[in-house]
C-alpha cells in the first residue's frame, strides 16, 4: 500500500478546509496518524473530526422584523431628511442576522452609505461582536476632572501647552509611557502585542476632527472643570483593522449577504475572546490617555482634583450573551463597567454647555442616551451653504 504524502496546510485546503488557527494543532496529530499507517481516506476523516464545527449559513433577517425604537424627531425639512436617512440605514443594518434590537438617539445622523450604523445608533447582537458597529475610533469618549481651585484661563493655557492635536504621535523625548498595567495588557494579548510601541507613541494625544480639550466652570459650584473628548488614536484604529479582518473572514463563510461593514466575530470563539479582551485593554488605555492630560494640567497649576469621571460612546458593552454596540451613544446604566459612576457627560457644541446627567437605563434606548454631537448635514454641506458668507 502506498503511504500517503506528508500532511501540511495545503493538503487540508485541498480537502476543503478553510485555513485557521486549528491547523497548527491538527497537523501534528494527522502526521502521527499518517506515520502509523492510516490511509488517506482515514486521514481525511480524522481531519474532519479535528476541524472546528462549521457554522450554519446565516441569511439576512426579513426587513422590519427586528425591533427598533426611534427617538429622533424632525421639525424642519433638513431634520426630516436627516431622520429619513437614519431610519433607512438602521432598517438595512437590522437585517444583519445576529442583531436582536436597535435604537436611535435624539441626535442621530448618518455616518456612511445605507446599512452603516448611524452616529447615535445602538445595535444589540446575540453572541457576536461587530467591529464596524463601534467604528475605527474605538472608545471615543469624554472625561471630566473638577478642580478645587483654578483659574479657567490659566487652565486653558496649560491645556494648550500639554496636549497634542493632529496626526501622528509624540516625538521621541516627549513621549509619555502608559501605566504599567495597561502595557501588560498589550503584551499579553495576541492581537495587541505588536502594537506596544504605537501605544507609547500615541499616548497623551487627542487627534483631530471634533476632538477637543475644553475648560469651563460648573454652573452649580463655579469650580473649574477640564473636559477632553477623544478615542484610542492609532492603536485603536489598528485594533479595528484587525477586528474587521477577522469579522470579514467569518462573514464570507457564514453570511455573504451581510454587508461587509456589518460583519461579525463569534464572541465565544478564540478570536472573539481575544478581540473582547483587546477592547478592554484599549478602553483602559483610552481612560488613562484622558487623565494623563488632565494630570499634566493639574501639575502645571499645582491644582487638586475633587471629582472626575468619564464615559465612552463608541464601544461594545455586554449584558449576558447580548453585546450592545453604541456608535455615538452613551451607556446610561450604573453598572455597565466597574468604574461606571452612573453619571454621563453630554457635550453639545462650543456655544452650549457640557451637560452632566444621570443615566436612567431607558428600555426604549436599550440603556443608552445621546452623546451630543449629531448634526443634520455634513461639514462639507455646511461649508457649501455658507460659501460667500463672511465668517
How would you concisely characterize the structure shown here?
It contains 11 helices and 15 strands. It is of the alpha+beta class. The strands form 5 sheets. A 5-stranded mixed sheet has the order 1-2-3-11-10.
Descriptors:
391 residues, alpha+beta, five-stranded mixed β-sheet, 11 helices, 21% strand
As residue ranges, the low-confidence spans are none
Give the topology string: H per helix, E per strand. Answer: HHHEHEEEHEHHHEEHEHEEEEEEEH
Please count the helical segments: 11
| Structural class label | alpha+beta
Distance between the termini: 87 Å
Query: Helix coverage percent of residues?
Result: 25-40%
Rg (CA only):
24 Å
Query: Within the largest sheet, what's the order of strands?
Result: 1-2-3-11-10
The tally of strands reads 15
Largest sheet: 5 strands, mixed
Principal-axes geometry comes out as globular
Approximate strand percentage: 15-25%
Kindly report the average pLDDT value.
Answer: 92
Question: What's the layout of helices and strands?
Answer:
Layout lengths: L8 H6 L7 H14 L4 H11 L17 E3 L6 H17 L5 E11 L9 E8 L1 E2 L1 H4 L6 E7 L4 H11 L17 H9 L7 H6 L10 E6 L6 E7 L2 H22 L10 E2 L3 H32 L3 E8 L1 E6 L2 E6 L1 E3 L11 E5 L6 E5 L9 E3 L8 H8 L5
Parallel strand pairs: 1-2
Antiparallel strand pairs: 2-3, 3-11, 4-8, 5-7, 5-9, 6-7, 10-11, 12-15, 13-14
Structural features, described:
- There is one protein chain.
- The protein has 391 residues and is of the alpha+beta class.
- It has 11 helices and 15 strands.
- The strands form 5 sheets. It has a 5-stranded mixed β-sheet. A 4-stranded antiparallel β-sheet has the order 6-7-5-9, covered by helices on one side. A two-stranded antiparallel sheet has the order 4-8.
- The longest helix has 32 residues, at 270-301.
